[in-house]
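Let's do one together. I've listed all components of the complex below, 479 residues spread over two lines.
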Amino acid sequence: MFIPCDRGGGSAAPDFKGFTLLMPAVSVGNVGQLAIDLVISTFDMTKVGYFYTDCLVPMVGNNPYATAEENSTELSINAEVYSLPSKRLVVLQIRSPFIKNKYRPFCETLLSWVKSSECARVVLLSSSHAYQRNDEQLLGTPLRYLLTPDLEKAVGGRMQELNWKEMEKVAAYPGISDTDKVLHIPGGGITKLLFTESCSKGIQMAVLLKFCSEGDNIPDAFVLVNYLNEWLQLIKSEVSTNNNSTDPSSQWKIPSSWRLLFGNGLPPALF
Amino acid sequence: AFLSSFILDSVCWEVVGVVKLWNEWCRTSSTTNVLPTDSFCLFYRLIADPTVLLCQCSCYVAEDQQFQWLEKVFGSMQKKGLQVTILSTCPVADYKTQESTLTLASPFLKALKTKEFQEQVCCPLLEQPNIVRDLPAAVLSYCQVWQIPAVLYQCYTDVIKLDTVTIEAFKPLLSSKVLKSLAKDASESTKVLKKFLTSSETHSNIYI
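Okay, and this is what the predicted structure of the assembly comes out as:
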């Protein structure tokens, strides 16, 4: 459940009415979570609360978006909420895996919070195993989107303009051609459950995902966050004077916690 | 909750410091044990000052039990004026740093504290990108969310079995406000330390 940081003393609880909730799915390569890190770090978003739940493995650490000595000693936990009122954006960051059998309780808690806080829509950043693509999906863009019926009415047209590709449904039984088509997001973690629950509860949700594999997923995170930016226009793309192309990648700020992702320094005795 | 026993590569010294002072008042989280003293998770209370509680948890609390453990323990405690200190250990190989961990002078202490904790910590704070997991993380998360002052002292050690060097790494804590009054004198400590080293079982995290 959502617990605000500042309680008591007359300060009102943060109001998310009409905001867009941006959140990651804990999925292959952790691409959604890395993309969210970029968003929070670039806009220097303020932490407004915690999403305290028994569904995620506990972890703590000091502020992952620290830029100086002064702000590096604030404790962070496994699920926190940040906000940027100027862009009507609220972001939930999830930092640890789900505990077994807790997907559904988490979905329920999350969606009931979305409804009670009156968020306008939810954008879920996710990923799916690249090796599970079928022949058609191997060609072209690795990015896909999904919209719940309620959001389809509102922004379906925009997606057409952007020339985005909707996530294809696949045969329930591969190889047998006359079976029903179902939505299949391997490696997407909570994505499919959250999406289907949102459809049935009438919540406006968009899923943006990328096909990728485990490895160095930083480039995947940049691709996904630029994909998001094409739609939400969080950063205005500046035309680069060097090569006349609009490349917003350089405008995303990498957080300090991305250091040492692949281990420590080497022992000098090795050489 | 059922707690399975697990031998961790971590070390305690706190029992060394306080075993004689304490009246053993314990509560077990396991419903299958007949004798409370057989439990691996014991609570002690100071006779002289019943507001001081010590919890010694010698077993691994699985991730799906941690939340319930917290709710049970903190649910029965008054949160006003509560202060929590957590001692834990961890292999130095898990410590992320620019240099290699082989060149570091282990064991060493690092701390993490909640927003409400205003006192001086006895060692440097844990730098990014290091994190803490398991029950110590669960306790600290709980304290951060519910605005309870709490501090976690994590000792990074390169030794798996119980040893004096790692135990003594916690010594700076004896000068902290909370533990100053609880420490035993040195001769007692060495006697009990020797006793621990002869037993094969290792003890682990302690929560005050």
